[in-house]
Amino acid sequence: MLGACETIARVRRPLRLCSLRVLVRSWASLAPSLLVMATGLEPRNRLSFGLAEVFGGLLLAQVSAMGFGVLILGLAGYEADVDLSSLSLRLIAVLQVPLWLGYLGVPLYLAKRGEGLVRTFGLRMEWGDLWRGLGLGLVTQLVFVPLLYLPLQALFGELDVAAAAEELTDRATDPVGVILLLLIVAVGAPLVEELFFRGLVQTVFVARLGPTVGVIAQAFLFGIVHLQLIQLPGLVLFGLLAGELTRRSGRLGPAIWAHVAFNTTTVVALLLLG
Asked: Can you point out the beta strands (E) in 48-108?
């Protein structure tokens, strides 16, 4: 009889341990959801990269642009302190290459080390992204940006928001120049900037700060690095919309097409008016 009792006790111990393990695992799986319900705070995502890669990428882009820019200008017979407004569109297109390569360096490295550009940064598209992105980019440039600047112009007077675009379009004096201009604003800039800012920067900021603050922070960083004070509000606005498109869709496709429309609308309008 005693042996039977010992056998039953031995069976019960593993059962109790098993039940305890199931309880712990269940609590571990439910804890994040309970935390969100109780506090309204979403748990932060864990990434294998962070702020060091973001600001390292920004630094790499600027160093690459300045270092190779000086070299390119020297080979073209210009001094390093040349007025950029005097440069040809062909030379400006060449000067964009080291800047873009700098921006691409960190995302490409992280993608190669991780799970690729698609899984790591959402670099993919669907057919619906085309119409959704182009529509939002067009409406932003033609409606939202003018509305944004109405109170600013009332406070500060007339603001030449299209000045930077005019400097480029004025140099597109032949078919080759027009093609180069469209390659810069409608192909290169949308792909490179969306991969870096909405792909890398927003991924890191959202993981560390949460979706709302993360999207806002990347939008301000996107606007600031363009170093165009008058255009800053419009750039931040576009950064917000592109960031929200990316956050909701989980991919860069809609934001890329929105960027294409946002840049191309002004350039095409200036070319036609010119």
From this structure: none
Residue 160 lies in a domain: yes
Is the backbone of residue 38 left (phi > 0), alpha (psi -120 to 50) or beta? alpha
Cβ contact 205:44 at 8 Å: no
Give a yes or no: residue 87 inside a domain: yes
Q: Considering only CA atoms, which of 208, 202, 247 is closest in space to residue 220?
A: 202
Residue 1 belongs to some domain of the structure: no
The DSSP line for 118-171 is HHHH-----HHHHHHHHHHHHHIIIIIHHHHHHHHHHHH----TTHHHHHHHTT
Q: What distance in Å separates the CA atoms of residue 72 and residue 176, rounded to the nearest whole number? A: 20
Question: Quick one: CA torsion of 25, 28, 30, 35, rounded to 10 degrees?
Answer: 170
> Is 54 among the domain residues?
yes
Task: Look at the chain and report how many structural domains it folds into.
Answer: 1
- Burial (Cβ within 10 Å: 0-12, 13-18, ≥19) of residue 180: buried
Helix (H) or strand (E) holding 93: helix 89-113
pLDDT in tens, 38-64: 434 444 457 899 999 999 999 999 999
Question: Which tokens is 149 given?
Answer: 């600047």
79 by DSSP, 3-state: which? Answer: coil
pTM above 0.85, yes or no: no
Closest residue by Cα to residue 200 from 224, 182, 221: 221
- The single-letter DSSP state of residue 45 is P
Domain residues for the domain of 105 are 47-273
Q: How confident is the model over 182-205, as pLDDT tens digits? A: 999 999 999 999 999 999 999 999
